[in-house]
Amino acid sequence: MPFKPKSLLIAYDDARGACARVVPRMKQMLEDRGFVVTAEAMGEGEVSVEDYHGVVIGTPVGLRGSGPSEKALDWVGRAQGLDEKRVAVFAAYWTVPGRAAEALKNRVMETGAEVVVDYSYWLLRPADGEQVLPSECMVRIR
């Protein structure tokens, strides 16, 4: 049986550029693991994830560990078909991770989606542990 790559969507809140600092490397690592990846900043309007096998959702963390962002929470609420997907969530933080990734994970689970991993990236050392999310996606979204 020939290999057929799985498609992933990385949707992230681009506020203050925090998530955008980790998304290019994350995208490359996922592609290296055989995924076809679309990365896009969260916008307004309808959201459909039906064409993807899995979804990665990212949120920035506020300076005092607050989060997830309202934009990310709103996006999750508007995402049609999310309840049928396996989802990874991540948070990007400067000072403290807080509970942003966990809170985003809980919100995604409320939709009925299966969350396969949640991870927080420290923006002063974004490469530390950067393989965790792509590796978990490779194993759990296949």
Polypeptide structure, described:
With 142 residues, the chain is α/β, with parallel strands linked by helices. The protein has a single domain (6-140), classed as 3-Layer(aba) Sandwich (Rossmann fold). It is 27% helix and 30% strand. The mean pLDDT is 95.
Briefly characterize the structure.
It is built from four helices and seven strands; from the N terminus they run βαβββαββαβα. It is an alpha/beta fold and 142 residues long.
For this structure, the CATH topology is Rossmann fold
Q: Measured on Cα atoms, how large is the radius of gyration?
A: 14 Å
- CATH H level, superfamily name: Flavodoxin domain
Q: Whole-Å distance between the termini?
A: 15 Å
Unreliable stretches: none
3D shape: globular
Helical content (DSSP H or I, runs of 4+): 25-40%
Name the average pLDDT.
Answer: 95
User: What's the number of extended β-strand segments?
Assistant: 7
Do you know the CATH architecture? 3-Layer(aba) Sandwich
Category by helix and strand content:
alpha/beta
The ordered H/E elements are EHEEEHEEHEH
Q: List the strand order in the largest sheet.
A: 2-1-4-6-7
Pick out its properties:
142 residues; alpha/beta; 5-stranded parallel β-sheet; two-stranded parallel ribbon; 7 strands
Q: Would you spell out the secondary-structure blueprint of this structure?
A:
Blueprint: E1 6-12, H1 23-32, E2 35-41, E3 47-48, E4 54-60, H2 70-78, E5 79-80, E6 86-93, H3 100-110, E7 114-122, H4 132-140
Parallel strand pairs: 1-2, 1-4, 3-5, 4-6, 6-7
